[in-house]
Design the sequence.
């Protein structure tokens, strides 16, 4: 399958970042950031998708972003 580009603007210029976020309850209260994600974002329009870092190992996340 070929890359289709960003679902919002069609651009094929994207990058990834890793982010961590707090959960709820005590982890939020003590600012424990145990939820890790990979964010794929379009450099043209800023559209972003979050992928769970643990379940996305070994997968080409940019292919998922482009509908591959």
Sequence:
């Amino acid at each position: 399958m070929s890359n289709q580009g960003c679902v919002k603007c069609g651009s094929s210029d994207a990058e990834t970042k890793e982010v961590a976020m707090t959960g709820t309850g005590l982890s939020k209260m003590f600012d424990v950031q145990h939820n890790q994600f990979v964010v794929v974002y379009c450099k043209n329009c800023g559209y972003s998708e979050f992928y769970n870092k643990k379940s996305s190992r070994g997968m080409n996340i940019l292919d998922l972003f482009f509908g591959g």
